[in-house]
Specification:
Distance between the termini: 47 Å
Strand order of the largest sheet: 9-10-11-2-12-20-13
Helix content: 25-40%
Number of strands: 24
Shape: globular
Oligomer: single chain
Number of helices: 18
């Protein structure tokens, strides 16, 4: 595989029309969702680009320097998307790598070597030139377990680095990597000279369109324009992010024009804002995530797969999509969106809502001596979406004889339990990566990693299926291998999918040309403000 396409400005990615069509077919409510998509805004045009001004953004969660590469909060995503560049960029609507810091590439016939040509006109915010050594350093940083990044195994499988040319690098793999371009899309290029300051939250130095200016923990993060950005100077003077854990406060401040953009609100609030001509609500097709119920399979009640499968049957997914996500989603049993090579329509309906099957499985397990006490259901307290889903799940499971106790905790604590596999029983969270190469989910994501996952699920057949789709040349995986992976996910039922969801944000109509990466990072390179 090779590319010689010219590097291009990091404009707003194309929208995923195929997914939008699938969603419309799946639920009539999506067609009625009162939000203007980014596609509609782009078609309508937003007037003449204006220079200057500071974008005021409301985010639910603060940054945590030790987790800066985990995509685990809205502030982290904003920081990465603003300060750093990646080697390649996926458009929102496909897995076809486009040039960024790498201008072209060539993958060897056996899939074990990748040569990348690099831009020679890029500088870090410190003024130091970007070279092939920085690619090596960034990949090795992600391979270091201390950072607990989700693609650590893929980064660690890159074992050779030829940096003899400052503007080219050849990577050698321990084995073919079907998801190597996923890594190159997600990996931010990190400045080796300031890595210690990054660990302490004192400096975040990249090559991106905005420079990190300051951070007041729990309060505010500020960025200023990078006037020397290699793609050209951004329109905004800067970005001020206010950490506001209360979603209702974010909505109130947007309505009062104290904020220009909010990242954290309920879908009901987004629906309401979308009906007000003072605001835009953007829906990012192609950056979707999945909301799920996780299970700790070492918990005595959940160690029996029948109990886990009973929970899967008892989940009223359509109610969650309709009531919580206001139609901006699709009920699922498997994580994959319809355009994924691992998608199987029939398999995706395996755990359709069926209380009779759920009750039968619970009764069988209890008859065999499985005790099912009241189980804690953990979820992040800041986000109203999780609280609403938790109440529905609690009611669903009560119908089949499984009692749960709601256990809301701060986002940082929940993520710590996710990474450390410390949940006592059940939890509700969202995951991503299913819209990437399927092996990325199976060998990388905290809830799924066949080597070590948050459910503490260990299974030789699941690991074999995950490894098989991973250790193949990019673009060459047999569909039958993905079917085998699907079978293992359904049989193990250690993670119980609820729905694919489409991320949304809301801004005043004075904000134009916001973008989004496939990683779920807001992009403000093209953004400008009007009066």
């Amino acid at each position: 595989m090779s590319s010689s396409a010219p590097a291009h400005p990091r404009r707003r990615p194309r929208r995923l029309r195929r997914l939008a069509a699938a969603l419309l077919a799946a639920t009539t409510l999506l067609a009625a969702t009162a939000c203007s998509s980014a596609v509609d805004e782009l078609k309508a045009g937003s007037g003449e680009r204006q220079e200057g001004g500071t974008l005021r953004v409301g985010a639910l969660n603060d940054i945590i320097p030790a987790r800066i590469f985990t995509n685990s909060s809205d502030s982290i995503n904003l920081l990465i998307g603003s300060v750093y560049d990646s080697l390649i960029d996926y458009p929102l609507d496909e897995l076809e790598p486009q040039p960024s810091l790498a201008t072209s590439w060539e993958l060897s016939q056996d899939g074990t070597r990748l040569t990348l040509q690099l831009r020679d006109d890029v500088k870090f915010h410190s003024g130091r030139p970007f070279t092939s050594k920085d690619v090596e350093f960034s990949i090795k940083t992600w391979a270091d377990p201390v950072w607990t990044v989700q693609l650590q195994r893929t980064a660690a499988a890159i074992t050779g680095f030829d940096t003899s040319d400052e503007h080219a690098i050849t990577l050698t793999f321990a084995h073919p990597l079907s998801n190597v371009f996923d890594l190159l899309d997600m990996l931010p290029i990190i400045d080796k000279d300031t890595i210690d300051q990054l660990r302490e939250g004192k400096a975040f130095v990249g090559t991106g369109p905005f420079e990190f200016a300051s951070w007041s923990p729990g309060a505010e993060i500020s960025f200023t324009r990078n006037d020397d950005y290699w793609r050209g100077k951004p329109a905004l003077d800067g970005i001020d992010v206010s950490v506001i854990p209360d979603p209702q406060a974010q909505v109130a401040q947007l309505r009062a024009h104290q904020l220009d953009l909010i990242l954290g609100a309920s879908y009901r609030d987004f629906e309401s804002l979308g009906k007000d001509d003072q605001f835009h609500v953007n829906q990012w097709d192609g950056a979707e995530s999945q909301v799920y119920v996780g299970t700790n399979v070492t918990n005595p009640a959940l160690s029996d797969v029948r109990v886990r499968q009973a929970i899967a049957y008892a989940l009223d997914r359509k109610r969650v999509v309709d009531e919580v996500f206001r139609g901006a989603g699709v009920p699922i049993s498997l994580p994959w969106p319809s355009y994924s090579p691992a998608y199987d329509e029939k398999a995706n309906a395996t755990y359709d809502y069926d209380l009779d099957k759920a009750k039968t499985l619970v009764d069988e397990a209890k008859a065999d001596g499985v005790a099912i006490p009241k189980l804690p259901l953990t979820y992040p307290s800041e986000n109203p979406i999780y609280g609403a889903i938790a109440q529905i799940v609690q009611a669903d499971l009560a119908k089949v004889g499984i009692e749960v106790e709601l256990d809301p905790q701060e986002q940082a604590q929940v993520i710590q339990q996710l990474i450390g596999a410390k949940f006592p029983a059940l939890w509700i969270l969202s995951h991503a990566y299913a819209h990437y190469t399927p092996s990325t989910l199976a060998v990388s994501a905290y809830p799924f990693n066949a080597d070590h996952n948050a459910s503490l699920y260990v299974d030789a057949d699941y690991k074999a299926a995950a490894e098989k789709v991973w250790k193949q040349k990019a673009g060459a995986v047999d569909p039958a291998d993905y079917a085998a992976l699907d079978e293992q996910l359904l049989e193990g039922s250690f993670l119980l999918e609820i729905a694919i969801t489409l991320p949304q944000d809301a801004s005043s109509t004075q904000v134009h040309d916001i973008g989004e990466t496939k990683r779920g990072e807001p992009l403000f390179y093209d953004t400008y403000l009007t009066k």
